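Before going further, learn to read the protein records used in this course. Taken together, the tokens spell out the fold as the letters spell out the chain. A record is reproduced here so that you can trace the correspondence yourselves:

***
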Amino acid sequence: MTMMASAVAEDGLEIEDSWSDFVAGRYKEGKSETEFRNYDATVVPTVAQFYKTNHQYQTYDFVMAKEKQYLSLNKGKMSIWEAAEFLNTLVDESDPDTDLTQIEHLLQTSEAIRRDGHPRWMVLAGFVHDLGKVLCLWGEPQWAVVGDTFPVGCAYSSKVVFPEYFAANTDNLVRKYRSECGIYEPNCGLRNVHMSWGHDTYIGHVMRNYLPEEALYMLRYHSFYAWHQQGAYQHLLDDHDRKMLPWVQKFNPYDLYSKGLAKPDFKELKPYYDDLINEFFPAQIEW
């Protein structure tokens, strides 16, 4: 592996399980708006604090700086397996009590997709969708890696989780960011919208030359719950986004609810995934 890891972020992925449980509960099918509000009010303090920090510091300028820093893909080359193993070092150090490695979690997601007979590219999307969390190993804090994503450079939707925490974001002081469309044209399409920085944007960019468009939408927007679960930001969408939306929604349950499935047998499954990875990727790709 040609990549050198910097110091692991101090908070590692300590909030990962709490945030995942929160998201799974918030967007569970059939929940009423009253249940949403009750759940938000009683959420574990670590998740509330996470979103308070996230909403304060995910400014337009911050996002542009992170895009410049990471989207040039100058961190080196790794194979898909090397990236997954690299990410495992973060999970091992930050959450020593868990018996589920990051690779096993990825396999839970992809195997659930595979069992339901979806295309091979979608199975692979399930396996790689969280690999962007290697950002934590390059020193990025939790609030810049995980969590619900949202557009920056325009008015915030009330459908974004904990919208009250946006009050502390300095973008509120910039007039051009406060209108509904902000710096964007109406119906410009999500490809022209800058999203809050995190593993979605990063992994979508890493995979852009290897997977079909439907898979790239799953990767880029699987944490954009305000859009694919709450129907927000319709004014920024174009016809292509609407065409891709069902694919993102199809992926969502596997992302949220595969965690409790049986622990996968890595040795048994590896030959299948070796073949699948080789079908879509060269030996190493840029990160």
